[in-house]
Inverse folding.
C-alpha cells in the first residue's frame, strides 16, 4: 500500500538567486569563449557556485587561482569579486588580454576607497578576512591605508592611526543588520568618521535578506540554496536562524536531509545571488517526490537592474 505523502507548503522567496552582477560575470565568460575559442582562463571561481563553475568548465573555461597558472597568449577573465590592482598590472606586463568581470557595485567601492585615500583618510573596512572581495578592495589602496573591521568587537577595539581623519566602507555581501550595528559603534567612537554617500551593501544582498525576514514568521524551517564559500548565501542562512527558524545551507537537492523536515508543514526556500534558478526547481522536484507540495512565491521587491558588458564583448 502506498504511503500517503504529508503536505508541505513551500514559501519561495522573490527575489532570489542570480543578481545582475553574477549574470553579467557568467555572460562575460560565455561570450569570451565564443569570441576567442576555448580555453579561456578565469582567475578564481567566476562566482561562488560549483554548478555554475562546472557548467563553464564544460564549455572550455579553466579556473586558476593566480595569473602564474595562465599561459601566455590566452585571454583571462577576472572574477565578479574584484581583484587587487596588481593583478591587471601583472597581466599587462605579460601582454595578456584580460576581461574584468568585477561586479560594478564592487568597482564602485574600489573607487570610493581610492577617493577616501586621496582625501587623506584612513579607511575602516567592514568585511570578512580572506574573502576575495575584501582582498580585491584592500588591493586598490596603498598598504596600511585600510584596517579591517570584522565584527562588533573589532568596532569597539580597533585602533586606527590617531593623526588621520577616518572613513568607512563595507563589503557588498554582508548582513544588513550586523553592518548597521557595527557602523553605529564606529560612529559613536569616531563621530567625525565619513561613510559612502549611499550604502555599500548591494541591492541584491539587501533584497534577499528582506525576503527571508518576510517569510520566516510563517514557516518552521528554511532551505538556502548556495555554496558554503558564498558570503551572501551564508548570511541568508544565519538570518533565518536569527529570526527563530531552523535553517540549512545546501548546494543542491541531493543535500536535503528529509529527517530534518520531520514535523515541518511550511518551508521557506531562497537561493543566494550566485545560485541559478534551475537548482531551486531541482529542490522543489525532490521535495515533491516525498511530500504533497503546494508552492507560494512571496515577492518583497522587483529587481530590474542590468549591467552593461565590457566594450568589445557586446558584439560577440
Amino acid at each position: 500500500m502506498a504511503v500517503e505523502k504529508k503536505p508541505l507548503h513551500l514559501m519561495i522567496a522573490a527575489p532570489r538567486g542570480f543578481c545582475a552582477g553574477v549574470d553579467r560575470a557568467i555572460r562575460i565568460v560565455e561570450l569570451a569563449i565564443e569570441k576567442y575559442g576555448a580555453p579561456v582562463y578565469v582567475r578564481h571561481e567566476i562566482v561562488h557556485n560549483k554548478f555554475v563553475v562546472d557548467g563553464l568548465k564544460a564549455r572550455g573555461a579553466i579556473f586558476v587561482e593566480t595569473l602564474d597558472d595562465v599561459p601566455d597568449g590566452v585571454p583571462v577573465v577576472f572574477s565578479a569579486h574584484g581583484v587587487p590592482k596588481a593583478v591587471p598590472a601583472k597581466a599587462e606586463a605579460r601582454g595578456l588580454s584580460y576581461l574584468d568581470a568585477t561586479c560594478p557595485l564592487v568597482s564602485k567601492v574600489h573607487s570610493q576607497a581610492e577617493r577616501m585615500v586621496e582625501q587623506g583618510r584612513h579607511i575602516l573596512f567592514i568585511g570578512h578576512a580572506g574573502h576575495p572581495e575584501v582582498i580585491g578592495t584592500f588591493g586598490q589602496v596603498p598598504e596600511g591605508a585600510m584596517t579591517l573591521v570584522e565584527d562588533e568587537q573589532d568596532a569597539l577595539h580597533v585602533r586606527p592611526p590617531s593623526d588621520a581623519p577616518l572613513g568607512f566602507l563595507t563589503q557588498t555581501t554582508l548582513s544588513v543588520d550586523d553592518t548597521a550595528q557595527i557602523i553605529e559603534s564606529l560612529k559613536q567612537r569616531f563621530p567625525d568618521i565619513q561613510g559612502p554617500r549611499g550604502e555599500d551593501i548591494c541591492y541584491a544582498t539587501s533584497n534577499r535578506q528582506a525576503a527571508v525576514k518576510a517569510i520566516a514568521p510563517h514557516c518552521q524551517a528554511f532551505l538556502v540554496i548556495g555554496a558554503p564559500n558564498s558570503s551572501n548565501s551564508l548570511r541568508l542562512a544565519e538570518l533565518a536562524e536569527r529570526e527563530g527558524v531552523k535553517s540549512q545551507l545546501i548546494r543542491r537537492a541531493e543535500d536535503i536531509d528529509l529527517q530534518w523536515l520531520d514535523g515541518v508543514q511550511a518551508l521557506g526556500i531562497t537561493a543566494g545571488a550566485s545560485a541559478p534558478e534551475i537548482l531551486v526547481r531541482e529542490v522543489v522536484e525532490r521535495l515533491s517526490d516525498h511530500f504533497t507540495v503546494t508552492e507560494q512565491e512571496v515577492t518583497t521587491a522587483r529587481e530590474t537592474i542590468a549591467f552593461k558588458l565590457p566594450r568589445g564583448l557586446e558584439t560577440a
User: Anything to note?
Assistant: The longest strand covers residues 6-14. The chain has a mean pLDDT of 95. The chain has three domains: 6-18+203-299, 20-100, 104-189. The radius of gyration is 21 Å.
